[in-house]
Structures are given as structure tokens and as C-alpha cells.
Amino acid sequence: MTKYKKVGNLQIDPNFYEFILSEALPDSGLTTEQFWADFDKLVHDLLPENQALLSKRQELQQKISNWHQANNKKFNFDNYKSFLKEIGYLEPEVEEFEITTQGVDKEITSQAGPQLVVPVNNARYAINAANARWGSLYDALYGTDAISEKDGAERRATYNETRGKKVISYAKAFLDQTIPLEKGSHKDVENYTISDSKLIVSLSTGETISIEDTSKFVGFQGAADVPSSILFNNNGLHFEIQIDRTHPIGQTDPAGVKDILMEAALTTIMDCEDSVAAVDANDKIEVYRNWLGLMKGDLTTTFTKGTKSITRKLNEDREYTSPTGEEFKLNGRSLIFVRNVGHLMTTCAVLDQTGEEIPEGILDCVVTSLLAKQELLGRGNFKNSEEGSVYIVKPKMHGSEEVAFANLLFTRVEDMLGLDRNTLKIGVMDEERRTSLNLRACIRQVKDRVVFINTGFLDRTGDEMHTSMEAGPMIRKHEMKLSTWLNAYETSNVNVGLATGFKGRAQIGKGMWAMPDLMADMLQQKSGQLKAGANTAWVPSPTAAVLHALHYHETDVPTVQDQLIKRSNDLTDSILQIPIAKNSDWNREDIQQELDNNAQGILGYVVRWINQGIGCSKVPDINNIALMEDRATLRISSQHMTNWLHHGICTKEQVLETLKRMAKIVDRQNAGDLNYRPMATDYEHSVAFQAALDLVFKGKEQPSGYTEPILHRRRKEAKAMFQAQTN
């Protein structure tokens, strides 16, 4: 039993208190006494409003469920819409306005490019993501299915020259498309040099030319007559042609080109939320300690790869010479955001005056901002924000009142930490139905500090299903992406962002490519997000960021946004189209296939979350396609099974049999993991398996269909059990 340290009206976990005392507060300009006194007041001032907002969620949900129960047999859309207005779920329209956010970095305002999201408690992932600002195009192509393995170009342990030639051909075609020569192809180049501030390109024909658009040549490394790299800028995004005639690849290239280095992940979200399993004070300390290391620039991690011990640290900035001879630098790292948790969950790291856990979102905002102050004060090795801002993504907010509360929290934290007003910038995740329908009103509440909105298919679909649980059985999951509401939601998000002045000021983002092994498919499909008006989109890995960067060279997003900004149609009616099945008479095989796929995804993710504290996993689906799973994917899968069970599409016995059968498959899939604890050997005493049952059989009663309450309770149970077994 933890013995808490009493400070004012608060009770602090002793380990957490020591972390704040010895690691967070030094050099912050704040005294320990004042920090805790101000935090005490902030918590007790804001706690009642936090609780009231959560109560309103429950009240609205109950009214909607009651309405559907009373009107299912005589559903009338106009009556439904009027009802939502009457209860305040649909908010009044707000007058036209534009955001006024100041002090925003160029990676957000003027550059368009990929965005990574990684669990901040995994130091290796966090460093890799921050360093993914730059990545090798040759490696990304060679190591993935972006290059076909046909005709002898298969991937193998040793270098395959045939595959290498395909990679180089692909890369040279990229150069021809992006920085075309005045004549010929980059495949024909024998030498790149700089003379009299100009790029000189020598062809195999003996001709000397340059690129068509000479303004795209912006710098180089090495000597002008023998450069080691040449820097270009296209559509606001950089890339280098790297030259080394002694390199194994460079030796085979007529121009000595060894690689093309791409500017890739312009921004990275360090996640404290859906991809993290942080259920107690020690978990939170790990999350915050890594965030502090990123802000100070001294985070490192050492791991073994094969027989080698490797230490990773943050990359230095990249140094260049301009065509006219001036020295300059480009950031070697992504611009880093931090995603706090939402308004719902509480944390045992700090208790209030009644002994109850305080809202975790309040603690996150205070502590992540406190730690980021180290970077603002210049205590770190690097600058994250050249503009002196702290970027906080706030998830899972429902409607404008909750966004207004987040704004109040940010304001209070700025005052508490001695930060200028609107130093704390906010990213509003448009992933809940009430926010989608009232997005303009939500943005208005944070118009002076907002830097980001995005769409997220998984959480948004989970909320769609939970909100309309009583409306009827939902369509199959794979049909959701073609549904009326989803397409309207994706379009409306961009429309509202552009109408409120996001172009050139803030990010409009799109969701994750969830299949990290299917890069060829990503290259074919993900460009559609840019053409839809997004200036950033989530990718699952640094490699994917490099490949997705190719799309931003193909499409000039500001030009697309200029074309789309004229759209002003109201899509509320389409967003309100509930994705219930018009004909739910599926055959037994189709029903079982849906159950199997949902169950495998749930179990494959939950077993690692509960037993190993892994918040983000690559889990194979029923077709053995690896999918990136986090709590958002878990929410949609569990809510879908809950919905079908509630409406009699399947039985409890059928669901239980499915989960047991799929648990055996998941156990086999994880047989090579020495730390894995199987579920099927003892279903009743497997905490992970019981958590999966809870998520489905108790899914209807979970707040907004969120998975966190069950996961946190069961993870704590598992940790206690493992500790008892160890002792």
C-alpha cells in the first residue's frame, strides 16, 4: 500500500513527488512550495467543471439512447436532428471568424509533410521518431514492398544487386519528376558540381546543363567542385542527393550518388495517451522522464542488435552552404508535439483533498508544460520550437464546452508556470461525434492558440457506434470507410479548417496508415489525403514517413487548399447518417468472419497491454496482415462486437467461443516471445482474457465506449498478481 505524502490539500505518491522535486523543478524558476500550492489550487478550482462535463456526456448519451429506443420503428431524420438541437448535442451555429494563433513554427505554418505518433515511454521509439525528420530513400525502397520482388529482386540477407538497381531506377525517376533537367535524365548524369552559385550537371553525352527550375537548388555540403551532398527544396520540403564515389553504392553510380536523403517526418507527436500503458505513478514518471529528456535534448537509449550494443541519441542539426556561399542549418529533428490524455481518466499519482484520484489530463498539462519550460528557457541541447511555443495535442473532447475547458486549463497552467499567454498551443483532435458536428464552435473556443485539427477513423467510428448503440446493428467494419457519415466527416473537417483560416497558420491532419508492412499500397492510396486538403497525415514508422514524403513532392498542398477553400456546404445532415445495416440478415459465415477478425484484434492487443504494458502493437488480422493497434483500434473492434451482441446478430455463447478459439491462435502467434503469458491455458485466471471479455460484454456501459477504464483496472490487477508471484 502506497504511503502518500501530504502537501496542502493534496496527497502525492512519494516517487512522483521526488521526480518533481529532483528532476522537473530544478532550473524551472519555480520553488517547490509555490508549485505545489498553485497546483493544489488549480486542481480544486477545475475539478468540479471537469466532473460536470463528464456528467453531461452521460446525460446526453442516455437521452440519445432513450430517443432511439422510443423511435426506432418510426425513425424520422428531421425529428432526430431537432431532438439533437433541443438537448444541446447539436450546438447553435457560430459567426464567421478566423484563427489568430501567433508564434507558430514553420513546420506547421509553411511546410506540409508526414507526421509520426509514438509512445513517449519507449525511449528508442521516441528517439527514432524525432530523428525521422530525415531518412534514406534508398533504404526505405529497398527494405519494403514499395519495390516489387519480381524478376529476381527479392529481399534477402545479403545485398541483392538486381533489387538495388530497381531502387536506384525508382529514385532517379523521382529526381526526374521533382527536379527535372533542362535536357535528359538524372540517370544520364556523370557529375554534379557548383560553380558561380549555380548547379552544374554533366551528362554522359558530354553536355553541361542544369535543372529546369534553378530556384529549387538551395544548398550543398562539401566543396563546391566536389560536393558530398546537394540540397533541394520542392513544395517546401527538402531532399539531398548524396555523393560518395568510394561508397559501395556510389561506386556503381555514374555520378557517384550513394543515396537520396529525404526530409520526412516534419512533426512528431510524443504520445502519453492511446499508444501508452501508464496506469500508476511509476508509469507516469517513465512517460514524463522521457518527455523531459526530449525537451532537454539528452535522451539516450542503449540496446543490443545482434552482437552489437547500440546507443541512440537525438540528431544534430544539418549544416549547409547556400549557393552564394553563406552557411546555414536545417533542423535535424522533428518538431515535437506531446499528446496529453483527455478529460475522462484519473491518476493515482496525485489524490485530491477527499482522497480521490485527480484527472490525469490536468496532471499531464501541468507536468508536460513544466518539463517543456526547460527547452523554452534554453536549458536543453537543442531548440524544439524556434518560436518559443509548446505544442499539446488534446484528444477525446466532446463539443465546444470541453474545448473551452481545455483552453481554461491551458490558461491556468501558463499563469502557474509563468509562461506568456498562448505559449501553450493546442491541437484539437476531431475524433468524437459531438466535436465533428460542432467543429467550428470548438475551434472558436481556442482560436488564439489552435495549431492542429485532424480526423481519426478508428476513434471516430468507435464513438459513432457507441452513441447510436440503440439505433440498430452496425454495418460491417470494412464497409465503414464507404459510409456516408465518414466521407462527410472527412470532408467537413477540411472545409471547417480552411474556412476558419488554417491555411498557412495551422495543420489539418488525416489519420494513420495502419498497415506498416504494406508500403506499396500506401504509396498508391495515401496521396488522396493531400488531394483532400490535408497538409499532414499520420504514418506508422520512420520508413513510412520517408515514403509518404514522396506524396508531398507530387502534390502542392497549398495550391490544393486554395481550390478547396471555396467550398462552404454544410455537411451536418450527412454526418448524422447513422451506419446501421439496412439488411442485417448476414449469413452465419459472414457473421463468424466478422467476429473472428474483431476477436483476434482485441486479444492480440489486449494481451500485450495487460501483461507487458505495451500500448502500441503490430497485430496480425484474420488475413494475417499486420495492423498497428492501439486503444483506438481496440475501441472500434470491441464496440462493434458489443453492438452486434446487443442487437442479437450473435449470441453471448458464440462470442465467448470465438474469443476462446482466437485466444489459442494469438497464443501461437506470440510463441516466440519469452515474456509472453498465454491466455488459453487458463481462461478464467488470465487477466488479459478476462479484460477482453469485459471490453465486449461490458462495452455498452463504458463511457463513450472508451477502453481505458477496463484496461487500467485490469493492468493494475495483473501488475499486482505478477508482483505477488515474484515475491
The profile of the biggest β sheet is: 8 strands, parallel, barrel
Mean of pLDDT: 97
Total strand segments: 26
Distance between the termini: 15 Å
Structurally, how many domains make up the residues?
3
Give the CATH superfamily of the largest domain: Malate synthase, domain 3
Q: What is the CATH class designation of the largest domain?
A: Alpha Beta
CATH topology of the largest domain: TIM Barrel
Give the radius of gyration. 26 Å
Residues in helix, %: 40-55%
Structural class by SSE content? alpha/beta
| Poorly predicted segments | none
Shape: globular
Number of helices: 24
For the biggest β-sheet, the strand order reads 3-12-17-20-21-22-23-24
Question: Which second-level CATH architecture of the largest domain applies?
Answer: Alpha-Beta Barrel
β-sheet strand percentage:
15-25%
Describe what this molecule looks like in 3D:
The chain is of the alpha/beta class and 727 residues long. The protein has three domains: 80-130 and 266-316 and 332-575, TIM Barrel (Alpha-Beta Barrel), CATH 3.20.20.360; 136-263, Beta Complex (Malate synthase G - maily-beta sub-domain), CATH 2.170.170.11; 588-726, Malate Synthase G, Chain: A, Domain 4 (Up-down Bundle). The protein is 43% helix and 18% strand. The protein is built from 24 helices and 26 strands. The strands form seven sheets. It has an eight-stranded parallel β-barrel, surrounded by six helices. A five-stranded antiparallel beta sheet has the order 4-11-10-9-8. A four-stranded antiparallel beta sheet has the order 1-2-18-19. Strand 25 (617-620) and strand 26 (626-629) form a beta hairpin. Helix 20 packs across helix 24 (708-726). The chain is globular, with a radius of gyration of 26 Å. The two termini are 15 Å apart. The model has no long low-confidence stretch (mean pLDDT 97). It is an enzyme of class 2 (transferase). The active site is at residues 339, 630.
